[in-house]
TrEMBL record:
Protein species of origin: Termitidicoccus mucosus
Protein name per the record: Glycosyl transferase
CDD domains: GH94N_CBP_like (cd11754)
Alphabetically ordered keywords of this record: Glycosyltransferase, Transferase
Top-level lineage group: Bacteria
Start and end residues of each Glycosyl hydrolase 94 supersandwich domain: 17-306
SUPFAM superfamilies: Galactose mutarotase-like, Six-hairpin glycosidases
One GO term (biological process): carbohydrate metabolic process
Residue ranges annotated for the Glycosyl hydrolase 94 catalytic domain, each copy included: 322-749
Signal sequence segment: none
SMART domains (alphabetical): CBM_X (SM01068)
Presence of keyword Aminoacyl-tRNA synthetase: no
KW Transferase (keyword) present: yes
Single GO molecular function: carbohydrate binding
């Protein structure tokens, strides 16, 4: 596939699975993630960001200051100084920002390669986390491209976080006194051991495989009290201070001196590692020396990567690992290269990031205030389960364990402890239903019905012997119990739209949107949750039928029918489905409203749940979306925007018009409408909508869009905004998983089922066909679909290894086999 349009800042290199950034001054810092297992790093195109083990709040290795000026300062830096002239620069441009003769950042799949050159010296840094390891490698190459010998001085730099990020940022009366380090200059290792004294039994290692001439671990000594990272005094002076931090702010810096002949290059690596000792340093912490760390594991890492060949081998393993992950779904031929590019590479890659980190750590989330979301993580599984189903299985069980026995859930939990966050309550009344969707998606992908019997207790009843199926039943029962006067589900504090808070009763002038309303006694109802319930009960009914439990299937189907009747009787507003009823019983998202007449969420979920299927309302609801909400930048959340604050609606009206939940383009919920159009067989409309929020289609307008052109953003400013088309909050958004569901199952139409792979594409009429390779339950399916009749939907002919079969379900093949599928839409 060839590179298409490029922006003034970079372009796609599809053959290498990279986005190539050729200017460092991107409209916003453009981010990549390092790591795919337990160790993670945020790395921008100027080497900014930070690293952590498992939990960005509780095990952060390096510091990062959000909301900084400039925005992206602090990261993994290498300062390069010409010993003869004193000229100082960074290969990633920041923080010194000395003009470079050449700059390139290649964000790849699990790695970032930054190359800078100035005055005859080229520096390349490759940042990556080897599969299965708890360290980050900076493979470094310095080359003299000039015609004279050069003496070059290098200074590495990281600023250590004292592991617990919130305490590190706020509790200075303590943290300024507890920072501790050790240095082993013989092997270039700096050990950050703050917290070791507290019996935490872990430390961070920042090592260099090249012989060093000095080091620094005290920020004041290296940077200077009155200096910034763009002018560190040790670098300007051309000498390390060999400082040891005692409290204050510990850092890690290696000082390296190189004499490079013309054409000569040096290759070596820096290692940033998290070392967990596993066992306490002593059985009696009160009377043992807690200052001396066990360096055995750290020294083993230094020895392992001393040879650059070991570094290259680790990078090779990373690429092999990702090739395997991505090979579960690959579009091998498509009339639209943007769709193939995103589906094959970047969309799946983003799904891995959201699975690993939920909404916790990005350029817009600090990693402190949010952990793993119950609702979020269940949805993330939908776009991830095909890659690593075993990890998805464990995540489902972890999520279920944070549900409470009444059916509600901890809205978030910390990944390190897997304990729910009690500060964020369980009164989001949609949370529990997403567990049904993720569980069914997992079983369809794997056929593993045993997960339903896996023991999972409830968070408020530790040690319980309930199983996962019990949780699914509890979720359905809770919604059936918690309904309002119209028979629709109660909304609680909020549903998927966290900002639609319909239980604000206070009329005090200084009350915020989090008002003192009695959520549990409220009658506020959600049509969006009703639609989600319809979808969940349809999924659970199908599961019970596959399990051969006809009575249970009928019981759940009756719940579906009862809710469907309530939706069609009370939620239809004439041209669309209302959004909700507020605490006073008044409709929200209705023609009777002056503002916020129509919302996107209830149209999408009522249609996806089966409402309006037999009476034309489904099509009418989506046509109303097209008429009132659709724009070339995506679908606006609601219209008209709220021009003033409405206490009775909560936070949704606290945003300025056109931003976030107040008539912004929330890309996450756009995908549900995309699937709705696929369900109705409207391939042209579905694909038009798909492209409207696709970041790879934004390169021509990147100065307006601003966010990364390779991963989805949470929000794009709507037409009511002062900056329409501007994106915010890229990377960690449910848009990733749902867009992959849209493109893989809706447009290309490969839908995992309990008894096989259903082929039901919905494509633009102009497409002559496409080809896809799918790994499913251990077999590999090479699928070619032709469209001689210029239609969008409807498989009329299906051949498996040359043998024609009826219907459109591809039977499950023998694991390890390869199957050739030929199909026609006609």
């Amino acid at each position: 596939m060839n590179t298409l349009l490029s922006s003034s800042y970079g372009h796609f290199d599809d053959a290498r699975r990279e986005y190539v950034i050729t200017r460092p001054d991107t409209p916003l810092p453009w981010l990549n993630y390092l790591g795919q297992d337990d160790f993670f790093g945020l790395c921008t195109n100027t080497a900014g960001g930070y690293s952590f083990w498992r939990d960005a709040k509780l095990r952060r290795l390096t510091r990062y200051r959000y909301n900084n000026i400039p925005m992206d300062v602090g990261g993994r830096y290498l300062y390069i100084r010409d010993a003869a002239t004193g000229d100082v620069w960074n290969p990633g441009w920041k923080p010194v920002k000395t003009p470079l003769d050449f700059y390139e950042c290649r964000h790849g799949i699990g790695y970032t390669r930054i190359t800078g050159a100035r005055r005859g010296i080229s520096a390349e840094m490759l940042f990556f986390v080897p599969p299965g390891e708890t360290l980050e490698i900076w493979r470094t190459t310095l080359r003299n491209t000039g015609e004279t010998a050069r003496r070059i001085q290098l200074f590495s730099f990281v600023e250590f976080c004292l592991f617990e990020a919130l305490n590190d940022m706020t509790n200075y009366q303590r943290t300024y006194s507890i920072g501790e380090v050790e240095v082993d200059s013989s092997d270039g290792a700096i050990y950050h051991k703050t917290e070791y004294r507290e019996r935490r039994n872990h430390y961070a290692l920042f090592g260099c495989t090249h012989p060093i001439s000095g080091y620094d671990t005290c920020r004041d000594a290296f940077v200077g009290v009155h200096n910034g990272l763009h002018e560190p005094q040790a670098v300007l002076a051309g000498a390390a201070r060999n400082s040891i931090a005692h409290g204050w702010s510990p850092v890690g810096s290696h000082f390296i001196e190189l004499n490079l002949q013309p054409g000569e290059a040096r290759e070596f690596a820096f290692l940033l590692a998290y070392v967990d000792q596993g066992e306490p340093a002593s059985e009696n912490p009160r009377f043992t020396d807690p200052f001396v760390i066990n360096k055995t594991k750290g020294r083993a890492l230094m020895a392992k990567y001393k040879n650059i060949a070991a570094v290259d081998d680790a990078f090779g393993r990373l690429n092999v690992t990702w090739t395997s992950h991505l090979s579960a779904f690959q579009v091998t031929q498509s009339p639209d290269p943007i769709a193939a590019r995103m589906a094959n590479i970047w969309n799946q890659y983003q799904c891995m990031a959201t699975f690993n980190l939920s909404r916790s750590a990005s350029m817009f989330e600090t990693g402190i205030g949010r952990g793993m979301g119950f609702r979020d993580s269940n949805q993330d599984i939908l776009g991830f389960v095909h890659m690593l189903p075993d990890r998805a299985r464990q995540r489902i069980l972890d999520i279920a364990a944070t549900q409470l026995s009444d059916g509600t859930c901890y809205h978030q939990y910390q990944p390190l402890t897997k304990k729910g966050n009690a500060e964020i309550g369980g009164d989001f009344y949609d949370d529990h239903l997403w567990l049904v969707l993720s569980t069914c998606a997992y079983i369809k992908e794997t056929g593993d019905r045993a997960i339903l019997d896996a023991p999972v207790g409830y968070a408020d009843k530790p040690g319980g012997t309930e199983n996962l199926l019990h949780h699914l039943e509890t979720s359905i029962a809770y919604t059936m119990k918690q309904r309002g006067p119209h028979g629709l589900p109660l909304i609680g504090h909020a549903d998927w739209n966290d900002c639609l808070n319909l239980n604000c009763f206070s009329t005090e002038p200084n009350e915020s949107f989090q008002c003192a309303g009695d959520v549990k006694g409220s009658i506020a109802e959600s049509a969006m949750i009703a639609g989600l319930f319809l979808y969940a009960t349809r999924e659970l009914t199908e599961l019970y039928r596959w399990l051969g439990r006809a009575a249970d299937a009928m019981r759940i189907a009756q719940h579906h029918a009862e809710m469907l009747d309530a939706v069609e009787t009370h939620a239809w507003d004439g041209e669309w489905y209302i959004r909700a009823f507020d605490a006073a019983g008044k409709p929200v998202g209705s023609n009777v409203c002056d503002e916020g007449k129509i919302f996107i969420e209830s149209q999408a979920w009522c249609v996806l749940g089966g409402a309006g299927a037999g009476n034309g309302r489904a099509r009418q609801a989506l046509e109303s979306v097209h008429q009132h909400l659709y724009t070339p930048d995506g679908i606006i959340l609601q219209q008209p925007a709220y021009s003033t604050y409405h206490l009775e609606l909560g936070e949704v009206s606290s945003y300025p018009p056109g931003y976030k939940e107040n008539a912004g383009i929330f890309c996450h919920n756009n995908t549900w409408v995309h699937l709705g159009w696929c369900q109705l067989g409207e391939g042209d409309r579905a694909f038009e909508y798909y492209l409207s929020i696709c970041p790879a289609a934004k390169e021509a307008r990147i100065e307006t869009y601003r966010c990364e052109p390779y991963v989805y953003a949470q929000m794009i400013a709507g037409r009511d905004a002062a900056t329409p088309g501007e994106a915010k909050n890229a990377w960690l958004t449910g848009t990733a998983a749902w867009t992959f569901v849209t493109v893989s199952q809706g447009i290309f139409g490969l839908q995992p089922g309990y008894d096989g792979l259903r082929l039901d594409p919905c494509i633009p009429r102009s497409w002559p066909g496409f080809s896809v390779t799918r790994r499913y339950r251990g077999a590999t399916y090479h699928i070619t679909v032709k469209n001689p009749g210029a239609r969008s939907k409807g498989i009329e002919s299906l051949k498996i290894d040359g043998r024609k079969i009826s219907g459109n379900v591809i039977p499950i093949a023998v694991p390890g086999s390869t199957v050739k599928i030929e199909a026609e839409i006609s």
